[in-house]
Write a structure and sequence with these properties.
With 677 residues, this protein is mainly α. Among the domains are: 13-89, no CATH class; 104-164; 559-677, Serine Threonine Protein Phosphatase 5, Tetratricopeptide repeat, CATH 1.25.40.10. The longest helix has 20 residues, at 459-478.
Length: 677
Amino acid sequence: VNLITPGAPTLQQAERHDLVVRALLELARQHPVILWVDGAEWAADSLAFARQLSGLMDVANFPVLVVVTYRPRALATQAEELKLVQGLQEHPLCDTLTLEPLGPSVLREYAHSLLPLTEKVADQLAKRSSGNPLFMEQLLRHWIQSDLLVPQGNVYSLAPGAKPEVPESIQTLWVTRVESLVANQPNGRDAFRALLMAACIGEQINSDQLSIACAAAGFEMPAWVEEAMVARGLAEPRENGWAFAHALLQECLLRHAEEEGLSPELHRACAAMVKGLDDQRAGQASRLGRHLLLAGETFDALPALLEGMREALHHQDTEALGDCIDFREAALKAAGVPRSHQPFGENIMARAWFHILNNNWLEAERVALTGLEGVKKYGWAGIAPECEQVLGKSLFEQADYGGAMVHYQAAVQGFREMGDSYSEAVTTIRFGQVHAAQGEFQGAAGLFRQAVRVLGAGRREKRWRAEAYMMLGGIALATNRLDKAKPLLQQAMDVFQDLGLVRGMAQAGNLIADLARKQGRTDEAIEWYTKAVDRFGHLGGSHSGLARINLALAYIDAANYKEARRVLEICTSFFSQNGQKQWEATSRCLILPPLAQDNLWKEFDSQLKIAERLLRETMFRQADLANALSLAGQICLDLGRRERAQNVCQLSLQMYEDMKDAKGAERLRKFLDQFAP
């Protein structure tokens, strides 16, 4: 509705307010109205109008709801707006609600509700929207309109080579907010350059490092900048510095620096800052390489990016690894390095491991096979055993255990010939995982112990020793030696915490939850599993799905079938999309008790049929599956569904027999006796 036409005389505040009130009165006669005052910390005029409306709440036939949203920290610095908000809060019909930013897991679920997406795309949306669902919708709409999403089975993924950018409307909004912050300040130009420099550094800013980078660029960062950013709600205080309040804000400033041609000099200053740091913590090499490359110093960037790839792979940091691979490939091309040279082989192997960490098994296979072709064609040294290791891992995750063993054997032989005892020990641990997955626990334990004896005491060796301890703890759990499981799992957890390996902590925590569940401490198990889901959710990949499976098991133990079904529906969809047949089979078996409890027999039959096929294809056997099938049979029998009860318990019996679980098999035989003619 055009209440005020362009070119009309300027109205005073009271006149404007009266005009809008009349419009609202007319609208409210037709249907209820919701009036939203957003960003109230900068909207004194709108708040004054809301106060005027509050005096009309007793008017008949005036169904208007006024919603006012603001950031408390920013509002506290705006005297006029703060007084107006406090006045509204004193109104007897006013309620005040505190809304926290949406957490990563909630945002990912919301992203999936907007459009069926791969986990990777959902993770990107969750991170870049900084807890704001409105920004998430705008980003997703922009990606769709820009043809950046392509179908991948039943879901959408980013197109190959796609680099999603921020919509221009959002960029203009954020840059304008920052420009208004520094406007009319005597050193506003330096303040704006300092914030562009901060955007080049990243989302998390160390104040001392930012000052050093500014000095390297030949100017001094104004002391008031950080406090002003926090006061306006554009930044949040952190230990030793601050962080951009929104990932999109940092991204918009970074893009603005590129468009203005300032990026090279800013990154050159950042590189000088990183070189001068005494702190050699993980990630510094990749930081230096990125800044050098974006500063145009290509050859100097290459060794730093190679070290950054190795660090990221050791820490299983998929985001850092992907960035280093892309930056290094760009640097190699810019430097004119031929594709036949060894550095391209190193990049191919890093990319194969990147796909492994993101559970993209088929793509990892393809890249590893490309690596083997490069070995034959160009003679890349030391690449072949790694390719075999990747192929083994990929086939293992797809439940092709025979194929996995063939490739792991080739990898062990290759590493042995190279004299690389570390990589041989790592592959031996992976070999043990194949045995454990098939229930060959004694052979698996022997391989894990063999690897521990070979591994040294360095940081990367410590990580794999912890992996071996964790696997031994898992075997102790599977064989009900709970007293032996606890110290092994705690030992692994301590090492992962010491090394700062989030993925390891999540995996060990997941097994600790398994231990609590086996000991009947269901509430504690649910708490640990929920933590694991959250940790894995930050990392992305299928491990969050495995943690969800375990969380669903704990809900089933607690007879909370509603929550179990909700979680398992997510798992079934995820694993079917990612081709992980053994875990898809698991999800479909576990969802049977909740479906039976809710009398959803058509879906029950469909899930059982698919589960039987997947179990035949994978030969995957596991005690929790057998127990869940047995429970589903009991529920079916209790509800008078005898034929279904008999069918599902026959499957459970077969699984107990395959696992050589005499007690479980005997229990099922007695249960099935009642169906004898």
